[in-house]
Specification:
By secondary structure, this protein is α+β, with helices and mostly antiparallel strands. The protein has a domain of 281 residues: paralog of FGE (formylglycine-generating enzyme). The strands form 4 sheets. A 4-stranded antiparallel beta sheet has the order 1-2-13-6. A hairpin with a 2-residue loop joins strand 7 and strand 8. The longest helix is centred in the first third of the chain and has 25 residues. The chain is elongated, with a radius of gyration of 41 Å.
Amino acid sequence: MPARMARLRTGLTLAVMLATACAASTRPAPETAAAAAEPPAVDPAETTDATDDDLEDEDGEVEATSELPAPPEPPSPCPPDMVLVADAVGPDGEPLRFCIDKYEASVVEIGPDGVERPHPHYLPVDGRTVRAVSVPGVFPQAFISEVQAEEACMASGKRLCSYAEWKTACMGPSKTTYPYGDTRQPGVCHDNGKSAVAAVFGFHRLADPVAMPPRKASSGKAKSDRTAKATRPAHVVKGKAAQAKRERPTRTAAKGEPASKKRTRSSRSDDAVAKKQRTSGKTGKKSTSTKSSSKKNASIAKRTPAKSSSRPQSVEPSVWTQLNDPRLGQVEGAVARTGSHEACVNGYGVVDMVGNLHEWVKTDPSSPRGMFAGGYFLDTTINGEGCNYRTTAHAHDYHDYSTGFRCCADATE
């Protein structure tokens, strides 16, 4: 009996030990359970999209990122073909802020059907409906009057520049005599071109009665001076010196004038001399172009043709015809394309304001004469140096092969 009880206790002990061992083998280790409870790590490089919740900080505000688009640029105060002249002071100390054409103006013709077509720069715009444009690489419009230039600007929503605006823009923010500096550098601007008059008509001087007041009896000394000038050697043309006197070809004589005259002026300076002569005279005729602003706007809205320029009474018909001969605008080496003289620019970025073509500016229509500035392709000094150059000898409706323009406009805020 005691032996039997001993075997029973031994069996129970073994059973308890076996059960305990089985339970221990099925319970996970503490480290394994903790590792299973942690979420897997995420590589930031593998993240492709972020939600609005991901961009919010602790205060619930969206955080800024470098991928946000840049704010739009403010609108330009000037049209694309113009540059801004801001914080400027005019010749009389007045503050100025305005837009001005970057290039000398050319024009397009508006047909009866409203379609715009190119207009040859060497033809007057008399009787044509035109609109001013400012583009590089083209020949600017010559043969245009102040009245016609103003209307062409208005047709493009612009206006003709005042002299104060024109001179301020020409001198640039540095206020220099020339766009590039205070000292003239021949050829930087187009101021030493070819003589169109000599190329077309073959004589060295165009006598222009518009600026030829009756001469007083000259003294012997003055006569001898003129004789000396007449016999001086001719200017070098294309590298070949023409040292002999040259005669002006016979042409149809005007009233009271001999059929032929000898001319021995320099072929280089003939146009410049003619321009100087024209600027010293009087036109003797008032402009008939005065209109109210509202009437002009209505005229442009109806696309009325440009006014035909009338010949000033003091200009002989033959001279007027010669000065407006279309061939003068087609001489190679005379007028240049806009922007072709890249160094003729100032700090504002305005191009070709000295030389190439005279540029009409807005003047009082009640005055008998208008004004153009800047000189042209043969002269930028006779009537003032560079940006100070201005001619006031011609009527508002006068034009010839050397007269051009550019437009201005009010700058937006």
